[in-house]
């Protein structure tokens, strides 16, 4: 097993849970990143400021960690540029068609025991595992 | 302070904690996410602890909060209204799964990783926004 880090995983997970909880308690909203980000593609007086603030926070919160000693190697992308572009398109289109991603369905929807979210989460985890299996061990 | 300003600050605070949590958890790193998705390889189960940690907070917290009449800074909760499974949900999630498996980025970690200014992150975000825009364009054409 490589790099199994259960403690930092758990600590990070608890913080993510706290962030998702604050969003519901204060603003009454699901902290689904694909939904929040895609909402920024249209400018709306009531919507754009809080969406932009959330995204800015997401970047700055992660940046605080990246700037700590040893945080520089926090992101390693192995895929080639064409694969990155195809993957990005699929993630963007798929999360909108499927109404959510790992945060919206995986965390918020699962926490509400939503049938749609539990199904979506099972599908994207299953398909992602199959994709990695095919690209790493078959092709 | 006006409620509108407080809502923006609340979203900023939530985003900050979310970004920090993602980075600490290691899930901002596609190499680590692929280490989890690669069940037939050198499997790294960390992601289970991340989702588990988050759900440990959100499952009880959602139960308590949703018993309230309204959230603190808004008049109503804005929750998804669809209840039934449909082809869009399954097909969209499957397409997302392929993209996630190919690169190791889902939307949250990709956006959080923008601070690295890595060309691969910028390229992924540009393609992801294009995919979202394409979906919006097709939906608008269907509706029109």
Characterize the structure shown.
The complex is a heterodimer of chains A (139) and B (144). In chain A, helix 5 packs across helix 6 (115-138). Chain A is 71% helix and 0% strand. By secondary structure, chain A is mainly alpha-helical. Chain B is mainly alpha-helical and 144 residues long. The longest helix of chain B has 25 residues, at 119-143. Chain B starts with a helix and ends with a helix. The model of chain B has no long low-confidence stretch (mean pLDDT 96). At the A-B interface, helix 1, helix 2, helix 3, helix 4 and helix 5 of A face helix 1, helix 2, helix 3, helix 4 and helix 5 of B.
Counting H and I runs of at least 4 residues, what is the number of helices of chain A? 6
Q: Tell me about the largest β-sheet of chain A.
A: none
Greatest contact pair?
Answer: A-B, 109 and 116 residues
- As residue ranges, the low-confidence spans of chain A are none
Please indicate the percent range of residues of chain A in DSSP E strands (runs of 2 or more).
under 5%
Q: How would you classify the helix and strand content of chain B by structural class?
A: mainly alpha
Average pLDDT over all residues of chain A:
95
Give the SSE order of chain B as H and E letters: HHHHHH
What is the overall shape of chain A? globular
Task: Report Rg of chain A.
Answer: 17 Å
How many structural domains can be distinguished in the coordinates of chain B?
2
Structural class of chain A: mainly alpha
